[in-house]
Write a structure and sequence with these properties.
Blueprint: H1 5-10, H2 37-47, H3 50-53
Length: about 55
């Protein structure tokens, strides 16, 4: 189980969704327009607890 440092320090749980590395990963060209919005929406719908969706 992974516990994020922010969760430990601020007592605020966080959820990270990661699609893996890509050619722009952590480069100056890694901008929001490179996001795969349809994939992100699908992951949010399938993997986010119901309590956090409200």
């Amino acid at each position: 189980m992974f516990i994020d440092l922010n969760t430990l320090i601020y007592h605020e749980p966080q959820i990270f969704y990661f699609n893996g590395r890509h050619e722009n990963y952590h480069q100056h060209t890694d901008t929001p327009d490179n996001l795969k919005h349809d994939l992100l929406e699908n992951r949010l719908a399938l993997n986010t607890p119901k309590e956090l969706k409200e």
